[in-house]
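Retro notes, item 3 of 5
We never archived the inputs for the zinc ion complex last cycle. Fixing that now. Sequence and ligand:
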Amino acid sequence: MGQNIVVTGIVLSVMPVGEYDKRITLLTKERGKLNAFARGARRQNSQLLAAASPFAFGEFELFEGRNSYTVYKATIRNYFRELLEDLDATYYGCYFLEFAAYYCQENNDERELLKLLYQSLRALASSAYDNRLVRCIFELKALAVNGEGPNVFSCLKCGKKEELTWFFTERGGTFCESCGSGQGARAGLFHMEESTRYAMQYIISSRVEKLYTFSVSVKVLEELETILKSYMERYLGHRFKSLEMLESGI
Ligand SMILES: [Zn+2]
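Structure as it came back at the time:
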């Protein structure tokens, strides 16, 4: 027998099914990622029309069948409308949703990722933050939350905790000045500002609620972008469709 449950979450993606239905992917506090049918959600008078859309965040009442979930009611608290009014922010937001859909698991504790996603979308919606920095913070924190972040607190060769001026993708983290210099010029080896190393340490060690409280110089932002691109290619190795759109600047 099935049962009714209430979950708090956000719609990551939507797929039309048949003539009037949708299948939505939700990231929830209670059950991680899950797929649910929203029957009749494409009808103009459906109560679920707006709720079954990407970015909709709130409470979803689901019927849990043997093999699938069905949404029958939703109370949406945030549609992220201010974000959707800005094309650039929307592209970043779509990327974050796609990233979460790829990265999160069903029946897994994804509360930190959900919190990170929510705070990151809020930061995109606000004009106070540079969207490129929001992206760096989101990517690095997502990797760290999943235990796949780089080690940026000591030299991966000698263990030293000072003068961590190099980032070496192949080894998954920082090298000190002398160990890094000893590597010669290599792909994936980057010399960086102290502020870049500090920003990475801050992102990895801070609570999600405290992440969007700082800004960085253009130089530091560029270094963060370069390092994260290299690191993500090496350890995630997935091409996101929304990222192609974002980077082609359409
Ligand atoms: Zn060292």
